[in-house]
Structure formats: structure tokens, C-alpha cells
Specification:
Layout (H helix, E strand, L loop, with lengths): L6 H10 L13 H5 L8 E2 L2 H10 L3 E6 L4 H11 L2 H10 L1 E6 L4 H13 L8 E5 L5 E5 L13 H14 L1 H19 L11 H13 L16 H14 L2 H16 L13 E2 L7 E2 L2 E2 H18 L2 H17 L10 E2 L2 E4 L2 E7 L7 H8 L1 H10 L28 H7 L4 H19 L7 E2 L2 E2 H18 L2 H17 L9 E5 L2 E5 L2 H18 L3 H17 L32 H16 L2 H13 L1 H6 L5 H11 L3 E6 L5 H11 L6 E6 L5 H8 L1 H4 L9 E6 L2 E2 L6 H9 L7
Parallel strand pairs: 1-3, 2-3, 16-17
Antiparallel strand pairs: 2-4, 4-5, 6-7, 8-9, 9-12, 10-11, 13-14, 14-15, 16-18, 18-19
Length: 727
Amino acid sequence: MPGTNTIAEFVAQELGRGRTPNRLLTEQSPYLLQHAFNPVAWYPWGEEAFARARAEDKPIFLSIGYSTCHWCHVMAQESFGDPAIASVLNEHFIAIKVDREERPDVDQLYMAATQALGGGGGWPMSVFLTPELRPFYSGTYFPPEPRHNLPSFRQVLDAIQALWRDKRDKVLASAAAVTNHLQTQASTAADPTQLDERLLTQGYQLLASEYDPAFGGFGRQPKFPRPVVFSFLLRHYDRTGEEKARDMVLVTLRRMAAGGMYDHVGGGFHRYAVDRAWRVPHFEKMLYDQGQLAVAYLEAYQLTREPFYANVAADVLDYVLRELSNPEGAFYSAEDADSPDPTDPERHGEGLFYLWTEAEILHRLGPGAGAVFCYHYGVEPNGNAANDPHGEFAGRNILFVARTLEETARQFDQTPAEVGELLEQARATLFRARRQRSRPHLDDKIITAWNGHVISALARGYQVLGREKYRHAAVRAGRFLLDRLVDQDSGTLLRRYREGKAGLTGQLDDYVFLVQALFDLYEADFDVTWLDAAVSLTEKQIALFSDPQTGGFFETSAAEKNLLVRMKSDYDGAEPTGNSIAALNLLHLARITGKEAWLTMAERTIAAFGHRLKEYPPALPQMLVAYDLWRQPPRQLVIIGERDEAETQQFLEVVRRRFLPGLMVLLADSTQGGQGWLGQRLPSVAATQRLAGRPTAYLCQGYACNQPTSDPMVLEKQLDSQPLSPP
């Protein structure tokens, strides 16, 4: 989308040029709208396309991607914008375009098929289906001409057309085999073998064996952050005292924030690094990464009290509030990897918004400050992007921390404090200069699940950093989702909101990430309406997605008729799988409400993935977190007092400055309704009372409680002592 930042600008620009749209023009998805002026006669996913494929006996070409995907843009320009290619597609195929972010169920199903067919995985995903939606051939990006051992897209189309015409029996046999494989995979029964504590140790040991001690992270390259790994390792350290588990996380977080994957001028993280040292990023910025990584840095700060981690978390949250906020209170999905060239607006390429020449930096900062900045951030006269995989960054620089503050100070005979102040001012100057550039395309749809991640991060940011703006933003976004994306008649959740319209049936991850966010919101302001909503949404989730036969939850409800298989994801990747968070949520709710049935459901959810956990525990690190929490006796802190009383706030401050995974903090107050809400569900809370009329803290583990106290210093000692002292 050269020259435009929003999809609305792009559509207006194309209509103004007299371009003829296809069927995608009426869609809400920015990704589909990006293809609304292709000569390809695209259909959205739906019965109209399927019926035509059946009526005309044509194979379906299914293209899956998302609006901020670099290689999706490349294939769109090279192939989907080519009238000759479009002619072949339109004559011999039914072409369907799917936004994977709107329809993760469709994406997950056909990604599994692509991998089963030996096509690897990634986006754009290109899958060929029978009219009955059965996959028989797939791949990802196909170039316009044969290269890098890939056939051209035209060659693929011609070959598929010939197969469909001349060897239909082989096509149908392949489609049946892949479908049977997917169905078998989805119907695997739960592992009846009892899980045990060794899984947690094995998960840690396997991650340790994959750790890169030179640069942090796991594996070689490309490197993805995968925050679920940080979550598991920090909790493993908390439980066992294994220092290497902690250190692997802390080193990785430092290396990531020092590398080019982090935006040193504007805050926020890019999607991943193509190299081992985190220096050369893939430049898109995803909302779900920002939320999860902010939480990782907040937890690292709680554990270490090192300001570095707090500063990164705050920078990430401030980036989200500044660049991804919707005026109504929720958050947009992503910013593109591609952008116009600041020196040549007609040129459009990856990362150009974020790159700098040495000459521009020296011009903006002056020779003195410019020299310090360039030395610290590895800026070179001819550019530093030697690992640029596509040759687009020639002569330009990716900012990364090449030298420490102390090294830079010694080089320029200054103190670290002086250099730190100079660099802060320089970054602000370059930020203002960069604001004059054309920004990357903004994907302005609001996804319920991803907003859940950010609400959690903001609520926890308020708790850890004490910044009221984070609590305000989290509350506003939480109310937006409950008001606009919950159907007020049925209580069901919707997935997407854009330009005033909510739509698309909510999927498992929408429910569980929002419920998780509601817990974090409750611990930020102790309004029990968040708990009410969490209970209601979980009840609806169980009704729509639970698998009574083998346990756990399907990703989609039974009402979705156009899917070959109801899937259950068994990999905690860039986001945790819905089942991992469902298990955690059920454990929390069972302990808040006293519902034993939900505790049993959490246990069955974990057991349903027993085979996968035994096969390779790091596949599901967040499920390991849930398993560990299930094994431990519940740990609760109940504070009897009003939220705004000074002693109540002192108790909360004691808790919030510590890393205390698994501790549930409940406030039994009268003004917010907590005393009545909790007392009705938990007899132990109903029996508590103030000591001498002052706010009082009850710290309990399992069925044993410490002596209640009205002294925050006593609570501090109780939290730091293990095991809990007897009552």
C-alpha cells in the first residue's frame, strides 16, 4: 500500500483512481481490503464460494495471510496484481482470501495440512482444495519466476489445473489421506498415564539444552521471543531456586532489548530477528507481542528490582498507548514491516521507516552528540545491516546497542550519567524527526484475544510501576470489550471490531485471553464486576468449546459448519494455546468461587495434553505452568479493608513489588462489593474480620493460614518465609 498508512486511505485512493474492486471491497478485514482491487476475482471464506466451486467443479485456491505480512505484499504485487495470473485463477479456480487474524481456525487447520503435505509453514499460505474443502497441495510464497528451488506461481497453477483435469483420482486420494490424517490427529484420546513432577524438570532441561549462551534466546536463527518460555522458566526458578532458569530469561530479555529487534527510538518490539544476535529484525510490530513482552519485563523487574526491565516495559506500554490506541479505548492489531522510503516516496520496502544513514543522524544531532550516538548504537558510514537477507538496507543502519553506557562514556571522556542523558535527548530528537516520515501501514482492526494480552499488561504495569495511566487505559479497554464485543442477548463473545462494527464468532482464544485479562483488571482495581464477567464468559466458553469425551477445549464451537476438523492446538508459540490459558483460568476461578467442577475440568484439560507434554514438554510451557499451579496448594492473600485506605494500599505495595506467581490477591471491601461477592462463595472469607478496626491481611496456603495482621511489615515477613507458619 505505497503512500498510505491506513486501509481507509488506501481504499479511497484506489477508488479515486477509478480502479474496479472485486467482492472483497465489502469486507471489514484490512488484509482482504488490501486485495479488493486485484484483478483476481477473490471470494471471502463462505458458502457463496464453496457453492460455486461445487457447481462448476473447480478446485479452490485458498490464500491465507495478514495485512502486515511482508511476503504477502510481495506475492500480491508479483502475482495477484498480474492480469495474466489473475486470468488463469479466474478461469480455472475459485480463489478465496482469508485473514488468518480474523479466522485463526481456518489458518490453523490448513497450516496443519500444509505441514502434513511437506510444505513447511508460513505466510502467505497457498493451499489447493477440492470443492469439499479437502486440501491436496500446498505451499507458502511462490515467486513469479522459478528461483531458489521454487517453481513459479504460474507453473504451480498450470500443474494443478492439469492434475485436476487428467488425474482427478490421485488428487482425491491425496485429499482424503490428508483429511484422514487431520481427523486422526484431532481425535487422539487423552494420555491415561499419570503426569508427574519430572515433566517440569524435563521441560527446563530441554530448554537449557537449546539455550544460546552467547546471545540469549533458544536455538540459532531466526530467533523469536516466545514469551511463554520466559513465563515457565521464571516460575521454575521461583519453585526450585534453579538460578540458570532465571538467568536464561534475564540475559535473553537484555539481549533482545539491546538488539535491532527493539525500536530504540519509538519503543516496542518487532516480530522476530532473522539473525542469531537479535540485530536484524523482521520489522512488523504485533499487538500480541507487545502485551506479552511487557509482562515478561515487568516480572523480571519484580524479581530483580533492576530499573532496566521496568524502563523497557514502560517503553513498550507507552508505544502501545501512543501508536496503537483506538479513540474508543481498545487497541489496533499491528504495524506493517513495509513503509515508504523517506528519501524516495515512490519506493516501498521493509523496515525503511526505522533505518538511518549516518549523515542524517549527524545532521539531526550535530557532530558532537551525533558521534556519541553513532558509537553507542553501532552506526557506520556505509551502513551496518550486513545480515540484511534481502539487500534492501544498503547504506543504512539498524540501531542496536553496540557498546555499553560505560564503554561509550570512557570513549568520550564523560560519566555514564552524562552519556545517558545525552542519548535520551538524542533519541527524542530522532523520534521527532522520524514522525515526519510516512508511517508503516496500520492494521486498524481490534481483535478481542489480542486486546486481552494488552489489558493484562497494562493492569500489571499499573500494579508493578504504579502509573495510573496504565490502570485507566486497562479499565477503559476492558469496558470497551465487554460493552462492544459481548452480545448482550446471548452472552457470546465476538472476535473483531472495526469502524464501528463488531463481528465474527469469538473463538477459544478470545474467551480465555479476555478472562485472563479480567483477573488482572480485578487485581488492579478490585471491582468485582470483572470477576462476574469472568465467570459468565467461562460458563459460555465451557458450553461452546468443551470436549466432554477427552477433556480440554476445541478452538471453535460446533456451530462452525465449514471446517473439516475441530482442532485443539498443542503448541504454545507466539501466543499460548487457548487450552493452556483455559486451564490456568479454571484453576483461578475454582479457587475464587469454590466450584470443584471447574477444578476437575482444569485437571482434565491438562491431562488431555499429557501425550504431548510427555513427548516434548517445551512444546507447551504455559501448560507446564498450569500443571505446576494445579499441583500446588492454593495460595491466597485476603485483605479485609477498603481499597483506598492507606493501610490497604501499603499491603498491596508489599505484594506488588515482589514476584509471587500463583498468589491470588482478594479484597474483601464494602464499597466495591468484594466482601459480599467473595463471602458468598468462600466461607473462609466470610469468617474473616478486621483487627482493631484496621485493614487486615490473611495469608493462606492450602488449608493453613498465618496469623492475621494489620502490619504491612509482618505481611512482608510472611511472604518471604517458606513454608508458612502454622496458625
